[in-house]
Structure formats: structure tokens, C-alpha cells
Amino acid sequence: MPRFSVKSTLVLAFAVSAAACGDANAPTGIPVGNYTAISFVTTGSSGQRDELAAGSTLNLNLASNGTTSGHLHIAASASSPVFDADMAGTWREDGSVVTVSQEADTFVKNMPFTLSFDPAKGWILVGEKSFDSVLIQVTLAPTAACPAC
User: H or E stretch including 92?
Assistant: First the structure.
């Protein structure tokens, strides 16, 4: 009977769990499913704002047919009113970068999201980009441990 090291067993377990979580019909190897912002920070001339603490939300569903759905809500600030947008559109992956195309005029369609693995949360999408001197940093995590399972 062959003997396996702890390292090889962990590598095999990770590969099996990653394969089980993927969707064979997805346009890429990115796990499809519902993602929600777990970190959402804006930094501009008036300082830094934790958007989640202010009441903002971002939910994005990556469907296996390459479409997106979801909702973006930006809470009002001293200089801006409440903003809501539908996340309907399409998504694609190039390497480990996910991009979204949509009708709504939001930062989401202009921000590349890098796929990263977080041991506690699974596959997460991390975006960071400046728009008109405002830096937006957002991290999206699956709403379940394995969004496509």
C-alpha cells in the first residue's frame, strides 16, 4: 500500500475540493456563484470611508452562462446622494482577472477583479483602482463556502 505524506494529501484534498466547487459549464475556471463585498473602502481628498460601515453594499452573481446579476448600493455622503445600480451584464476571465461588462455606469465595469484564494473564505475577488482621484478598494467573497456547489 503506498504511503502518502501529509503535504501530498493536502495538495490532493485541495485539488479535489477546488474541482468539486467549479462549474463545468462556466466560461472559465472561476467559481461561479454569488459574491458579496466583505471589504469596501473609498479614499479621496476628504479622507477614507468604510463603505460597508456607512451602509453601502455590493452583491454580484457570476452565472455559469457568463451573465451577471446583483445590486450595488452606495450610501449617501455629505457630497453625494444615494446611488443604486443593477449589476446585470456579462463577465469574463483572462488568467486570474475577472472583468464585468454592464449597462450601469459604475466602477464595477471599469475595475479588474483579481481571483485569489483565502483559506477561510475560499475564492475571493479583489479589486483596487483609482477613479477621478478616488481610490476604490473592494473584496468580494462567496456568500457560501462553495458558491457553485
Answer: strand 89-94
